[in-house]
Amino acid sequence: MNDSLDRVAQIQREWARERPDLDVSPANVIGRLHRLAAFLTEELLVVYRRHGLGEGDFDVLAALRRAGAPFERAPKDLARHTMVTTGAITKRLDRLEEAGLVQRRPDDADGRGRVVALTARGREVIDAAFTEHIENEHRLIASLAPREAAALETLLGTWLRAFEDPA
């Protein structure tokens, strides 16, 4: 195999040989995005783990921190801001509460509802983790020129909106 080709290009050559009747060109994009996402996820997890967090934990703490003072949201809002189900949020919150990073309390505006808030320790952890996370993300895109990163951002945003807001 040609070592100058990335793995996706090698796979494409094999499919072109074996199934010339199919246009497998979408895999040039999808395959690379899939492989890149796996590499990036592993690189991001290294930072989360250094702060004692999993990917979901980081997501919940970040959603609470982004809410602004007093750094709290209702569980259903957390599910929306982290793009997971309320059932998955409950498991994450149990773990985070046990670690002393969040607390749940009755909602002052709706006695039947609950609110999840960052604890002081939770804010310390997410602030430190997010600072390192952003430094890591800068490192991860450093191989792209600024104009390449901007073009990629635009393209990915356009494509993502097609899935998030189907017409």
Automatic annotation (TrEMBL):
Pfam families: MarR_2
Domain HTH marR-type: 26-161
Organism for this UniProt entry: Flavimobilis marinus
Gene3D superfamilies noted in UniProt: Winged helix-like DNA-binding domain superfamily/Winged helix DNA-binding domain
InterPro entries linked to this entry: ArsR-like_HTH, HTH_MarR-typ, Tscrpt_reg_MarR-type_CS, WH-like_DNA-bd_sf, WH_DNA-bd_sf
Protein name as annotated: DNA-binding transcriptional regulator, MarR family
Transcription found in the keyword field: yes
GO MF entry, a single one: DNA-binding transcription factor activity
Keywords carried by this UniProt record: DNA-binding, Transcription, Transcription regulation
UniProt keyword annotation of DNA-binding present: yes
SUPFAM superfamilies xrefs: Winged helix' DNA-binding domain
